[in-house]
Amino acid sequence: MDLSPITLEYHLRCAPGPAFDVYVQQIGRWWHPDYSLDPAGFVGATIEPWVGGRVLLEDATRGALQWGEVLEVRSAARLVHSSTLGQTREHPSRITVTFQPGAEGGTLMTFEHAGWTEENAVDRRKFTEWPRILDRYAALADAA
After folding, report:
1. Lower Cβ count inside 10 Å, N or C end of the chain?
2. First-to-last CA distance in the chain?
3. What pairs with residue 9 in β-bridges?
4. Mean pLDDT, rounded, for 84-96
5. What CA–CA distances, in Å, run from 14 to 7, 23, 67, 92, 126?
6. Rg (the chain; Cα; Å)
């Protein structure tokens, strides 16, 4: 049973502030519709950037569907939220995204999907396609 975090790193051309803003404020633009309940009905996604804020997928038929809660936020530096996407609500995992100054004014963005336990580890295998989603984020951030 693999309980290790899923970790990805991206070297972005933009500074940490814009990289953070694209991640949080433009998630509806970079989130891949295939990773929603109904790709044809995907309207967008939202992160409310405060502790206790919701992480939502928006569907044309079902409305806003919460799949996480913001646990920590440090603007331009760090975002942590729970995740029940593709999992049961009783055993959420945790997503941590950090934004550190990188080379030549860019950003090192580190994405970690962790919080795997014996109760939710069976769901971990569903998350092998994070690069497909996050590559879209990186392209949008690099264009900022």
Report:
1. N
2. 40
3. 110
4. 95
5. 21, 12, 28, 31, 30
6. 15
pLDDT > 70: percent of the chain: 100
- Please report the DSSP string for 54-96 in residue order: EEEEEETTTEEEEEEEEEEEETTTEEEEEE-TTS-TTS-EEEE
- Count CB-CB contacts under 10 A for residue 119: 11
State which amino acid sits at residue 14: C
Sign of CA dihedral 101, 96, 68, 64: positive
Domain-by-domain residue ranges, the chain?
A: 6-35+70-143
Mean pLDDT to the nearest integer, 112-137:
96
Smallest Cα–Cα separation from 115: which of 106, 107, 124? 124
pLDDT > 90? residue 144: no
Is 6-35+70-143 assigned to CATH 3.55.50.30? no
Of 11-15, 34-38, 48-52, the one with minimum mean pLDDT is 34-38
